[in-house]
Amino acid sequence: MAASKNPTRRGVVRGLGLGTTVLMAGCAGIDLGGSGRGPGDMPPPAPGETPGVSAEPLPPPGGGPATPAAPGQTRVTLILPLSAGGNAGAAAQSMKNAAELALAEFNNPDVMLDVKDDAGTAQGAQAAARQALEEGAAVILGPLFAHAVGAAAQVARGRVPMIAFSTDSNVASRGVYLLSFLPESDVDRIVEYAAQQGKRSFAAFLPDNPYGSVVEAAFKQAVSRRGGRVTAIERYKPGDASLQAPARQVADVASRSDALFLADSGDALPRGVQALQGAGVDPKRLQLIGTGLWDDQRVFSDPAMDGGWFAAPDSAGFRGFAGRYRIRYGQDPVRTATLAYDAVALVAALLKAQGGGRITDEMLTNPSGFAGIDGVFRFRQDGTNQRGLAVLKVTTAGGEVISAAPRTFS
C-alpha cells in the first residue's frame, strides 16, 4: 500500500499491524494523534453544517423519500432516543454530537451518517431499523436501550450487522454486537487482578436489582475460573435504610475472606460500607474491590473507600476526547458519548480499508480487536465484547491506575 500524504489516513494505516483484514481502528489515535489536526481546527458548526450527516425524524408511512447518499457513499444509520424525555434525550444528543465529531475527524466523505430518532421505544426502534434497511444502510449503529435493541434486531438480524449500545448482554447475538461497557468485563478484570495479588477467598455485598444479579453471576464465574472460593454473597434492597441484617451476614465471614466485592455507586455505596463498618467489618483489613461504578467523586471522597480497587477504562482517552468535544460543541459530553464516536470511527475505518461495500460479521469479530477512545476492545461471536480495562485504586484525588489496561489481546 502506498504511503498517504493525508495525516488522517496515516493514523488509520498505523492500526493495520494488529489485524490482517480489519484495522486496529480509525480511532486508534484518539489522544489527538489520530485525526491529524488539532481541536482548534474545528470551529463549532452551525446547525446542519456537519458534512455527510442527515438527521431527520421518521416520516409517517408513505412519507417523503429519505436524503439519498451521494454516489460512492455508504449509508450508515445511527438510531438514538433523541426525543425521549429526561436524561435519555440529553444523552442521545451528546452521542449524536460525538458521532458527527468522529465523521469530521476521520475526514471520510465516503460515509453518509443518517441519524434516526426511536423516541426510546421498541416500536420506534423497529420502525427506524426497517426504514434503514429500505434505504440501503450497510450497518446500523444503536439503539441505546435493551428493549429497543431487541426490537430492531428482529428486523435487521441476518441482513445487516448492528453495533448497539445497551449494557444488557441478553440482547447480544451474532450480528447484534454490543459496544457498551458490560459489567461482566469489569467483574472479570477486578477478580483476575485480585487473584494475581494473592486473594483467594471472596465475599460480596450487592444490590438486589437487575445490575446486582448480572454482577453476582459474573462474580461467581470469575472467582471459580481463578480457583478462588466464595465465602458469602449477600443482597440488599437499594434505598433500604435497614442494611444491618445483610451487613451482619458479611461480617460473620469477614475473617475468612481476603476481598469484599461491592457493586454500587454514588451515595448507595458509602451507605453500604457504613453499614458494614457498623456490623464490624474493617475495610482496612479486607480488600475492597468493585466495578466501574466506583468511578465517582462521592466514592473518592469517602475515607472508608480509600485504597479500594476497581476496574474501569483508563480515563486518559476520554479526557482527550472530552476536550475536543468541548471545543466543538461548547459543553461536556456524557460518558457514553465515546461509544457513538468509536462506532462511527470503526465503521469508517473498515469501509475505507476495503474501499466501501459491506460490513461483515467476520470483519467485526476479528480476534485482534480494535483500539478506541476507551482502549482496546473486540467483539465475541455471541455479540458481547471484551475490553482492555485498567485497575484503579481509590484515592481522595480520584482513581489512580495500579494496573494498566492491556493494549493488545494476546
From TrEMBL:
Q: Which is one Pfam family of this protein?
A: Peripla_BP_6
Q: Which InterPro entries match?
A: BCAA_transport, Leu-bd, Peripla_BP_I
* Leader sequence residues: none
The record's Gene3D superfamilies line, in alphabetical order, gives: 3.40.50.2300
Organism's domain of life?
A: Bacteria
**Alphabetic keyword roster:** Amino-acid transport, Signal, Transport
Report domain Leucine-binding protein positions.
75-398
Q: Where is this region: Disordered?
A: 34-72
Coiled coil ranges (UniProt) are none
Please state which protein family the record places this protein in: Belongs to the leucine-binding protein family.
**Which PANTHER family does the entry mention?**
LEUCINE-SPECIFIC-BINDING PROTEIN, PERIPLASMIC BINDING PROTEIN OF ABC TRANSPORTER FOR NATURAL AMINO ACIDS
Q: What is this protein called?
A: Penicillin-binding protein activator
* Species assigned in the record: Rhodoplanes tepidamans (Rhodoplanes cryptolactis)
